[in-house]
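Q: Second attempt. The first request was missing the SMILES, so the protein and pyridoxal-5'-phosphate are both included now.
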Amino acid sequence: MNYHVDSNGYYGKFGGAYIPEMLYPNVEELREQYLDIIAEDAFQEEFNALLKDYVGRPTPLFLANRLSEKYGAQIYLKREDLCHTGAHKVNNTIGQIILAKKLGKKKIIAETGAGQHGVATATVCALMGIDCIVYMGEVDMARQKPNVERMRILGAKVVPATSGSKTLKDATNEAMRHWINNPKDTHYIIGSVVGPHPYPDMVTRFQAVISAEMKTQLKEKTGNEDPDYVFACVGGGSNAAGSFYHYLDNESVKLVAVEASGLGVSSGKSAATTALGKSGVLHGSKTLLMQTPDGQVVEPYSISAGLDYPGIGPMHAHLFDTKRVEFLSATDEEAMQAGIELSRLEGIIPAIESAHAFAALSQMKFDASDVVVINLSGRGDKDLDTYIKWGKY
Ligand SMILES: *Cc1c(COP(=O)(O)O)cnc(C)c1O
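A: Got both inputs this time. The predicted holo structure:
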């Protein structure tokens, strides 16, 4: 079975580039050049140097003793929460900003829902001295005020999207429109393994540093670079893609993706895409998405803003379809409890997105010798208000 992208941008029957004609030159320029640029020595040197000295990589792989005891396995945490800006998203924005420079681009645009990708983009634009515009739904701007101000402090211009439901989808439309009108000097940084080809593959390659490091670190700590399990939460799927990437072809490593089921898979308030979704086109690629029988995208819901997305990247749709990855889900309540449990057992307050991956532990039956890696995609500082409102600790 092939789990990798083909030259047309497909993973099995998912992927591709379903874009308006006007966007074709921009996407085509990127498609023609991304692999060559990423392979250049100069690119790799700059990327690796920034990941090391700016982001703080390699992030530690930590043996969580008390969590291991509770679940009867050897559980390691991949500490993406310790990345600069507090999550894995910066791995991708560093890669794309270097790529944008090599393409001769002078401006960056991005869209953001919860604001985390906007902050990661504004961060690397400040670092490189490049103009940055972030499109964000007006409703999201009101909900995510601290991230709006972070972006502004970093020097980005945050532009409200005022059409439709005034959320992520509308911000994406605005960003696309901007890109169509400014194809020559602007690069569009997408924040997850979604969008038209080559974005899903490009973002996966930048995030793949996570599983590359896991292999070296596991070899050092256990003598074997392959664990029995890797767990990651899935919104669009970038932290999961990065944690799975170097294990995809080794079927002895079980890969587990955890979606947000909100108030329950069949509650009507959920973001459990593989449980509820059907094939369709979202943000320029063919993938699984939550939709009504007549093909309208269903508004997703999760307590965690980063998992509140109606689709998943096309690679994950294929990994689900081929059963290479097992998809589980966790409700708001289960994730919040798992977040508190990790705080109490290991002294680490996780992002609520990441807490969903931990909530899946109680759904598993491990052998005592199993080596389990959980990708701890981000830290919980940004979620303090949500923890306080939930209140049960
Ligand atoms: C954005 C975010 C996610 C979800 O995005 P993916 O592309 O699925 O990784 C998960 N965890 C954290 C901490 C995030 O900020």
